[in-house]
């Protein structure tokens, strides 16, 4: 079953870094996942996230306000 990964952020450099880390982990580990960027502030608010970037995996907010390591992202996806 494919995972749905959402990156919440308005497009700031940190949000772009998080997107890059997630894409690398997904590609390097052949993870079946869809990556969506959520940039609309009203959509971000629906997740009750006040600090971006945030990482949402299958509708669960897993990380807020920081950029995780690739190992951390891989652990969350497994």
Rg measurement, Å: 11 Å
CATH fold category name: Glutaredoxin
Termini gap: 12 Å
Domains (count) = 1
User: Rough shape?
Assistant: globular
Strand content: 25-35%
Structure keywords:
78 residues; alpha+beta; Glutaredoxin; four-stranded mixed sheet
Summarize the structure in words.
By secondary structure, this protein is of the alpha+beta class. The protein has a single domain (3-77), classed as 3-Layer(aba) Sandwich (Glutaredoxin). It is built from three helices and four strands. It has helices at residues 13-28, 41-45, 70-77, and strands spanning 3-8, 33-38, 54-57, 60-64. A four-stranded mixed sheet has the order 2-1-3-4. Helix 1 links the parallel strand 1 and strand 2 (33-38). Helix 1 packs across helix 3 (70-77). The longest helix is centred in the first third of the chain and has 16 residues, at 13-28. The relative contact order is 0.27. The mean pLDDT is 96.
Task: Give the SSE map.
Layout: E1 3-8, H1 13-28, E2 33-38, H2 41-45, E3 54-57, E4 60-64, H3 70-77
Parallel strand pairs: 1-2
Antiparallel strand pairs: 1-3, 3-4
Helix pairs in contact: 1-3
């Amino acid at each position: 079953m494919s995972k749905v990964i959402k990156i919440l952020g308005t497009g700031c450099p940190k949000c772009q870094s998080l997107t890059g880390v997630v894409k690398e982990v997904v590609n390097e580990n052949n993870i079946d996942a869809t990556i969506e960027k959520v940039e609309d502030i009203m959509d971000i608010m629906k997740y009750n996230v006040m600090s971006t970037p945030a990482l949402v995996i299958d509708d669960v907010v897993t990380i807020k306000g920081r950029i995780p390591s690739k190992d951390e992202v891989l652990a969350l996806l497994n």
